[in-house]
Amino acid sequence: MTTDPQTWHPDPSKPAYVPPAGAVDAHCHVFGPADRFPYAPERKYTPVDAPKEMLFALRDHLGFSRNVIVQASCHGKDNAALVDALESEPERTRGVAVVRPDISDQELRQMDAAGVRGIRFNFVRRLVDPGPRDVFSTLARRVADLGWHVVVYFEAPDLEDLTAFLKALPVTVVIDHMGRPDIAAGVESPGFRAFRTLMEDDKFWVKVGCPERLTVAGPPYDDVAPFARTLVESCPDRVLWGTDWPHPNMKSHIPDDGLLVDRIPVIAPTEDLQRRLLVDNPQRLYWAR
Fold first, then answer.
1. Cys-Cys with 151: which of 120, 184, 240, 271 at CB 3.0–4.6 Å?
2. Whole-number pLDDT of residue 132
3. Are 80 and 72 spatial neighbours (Cβ–Cβ below 8 Å)?
4. 105, 176, 202, 244: which one is catalytic?
5. pLDDT per residue over 212-260, tens digit each?
6. Where are the chain's structural domains?
7. Phi/psi of residue 167, each to 5°?
8. Fold topology of 24-155+240-286
9. Annotated catalytic, 223?
10. For residues 39 and 26, what is the distance between their CA atoms, to the nearest angstrom?
């Protein structure tokens, strides 16, 4: 499999917005390096290496204090690169893993000790081949005993089919990328109204970053801002934000992470909302113990 084009900006701008002390980039990834952490044979893309050292340098450049690193599909269910990054900066990192159905309790406890606090279920078929839902339900019950949560990635047309399954999971559920709404349809569209109805249930949290993935108009992503701002203002204690660096599988353009940070006060227009989004909420979910 050939390597895809580079998706991370080689020289991101320094943002004008200064995040509050303790701010968390709550959705980012590490890729490789492949000679140490090989990519999964079943992967559907092959990224350019983007190891932990690059992620941590970007964090400091952007003015953040901590990272939540999410296992990316290119590494499959081998979480070695993720765990290595967590163990290298244990106070400043937490993780979300993707695990095998037959993972042992001992392995889960080892991941917990390393800083993993959740597992991810991916339902986006262009990226993965989703497994049976009963397997996901069993995994959710097992990680509930550890106090973990579940992160889910799906696209807006799949919401209706997934809703009953997600509501039945016995854990907090964090939804990636606002459930990938149809931006062209607008915030009053039936699809986004259905998502807002789902978010009325306190078990659901949502990540309001990644405008670069959702935009129709392109940078500076003004068309995405009303969706994120609506969620920040309607459920301020259950929103998270992240860069999504190194922007896996991006094909339209290479995002400038400095610009992404400068969009934060657009979607969270008060200092109180910014602090909840960047500090208080990730602290409760990932660093409470």
1. 120
2. 80
3. no
4. 244
5. 999 999 999 999 999 999 999 999 999 999 999 999 989 999 999 999 9
6. 24-155+240-286
7. -65, -25
8. TIM Barrel (3.20.20)
9. no
10. 23
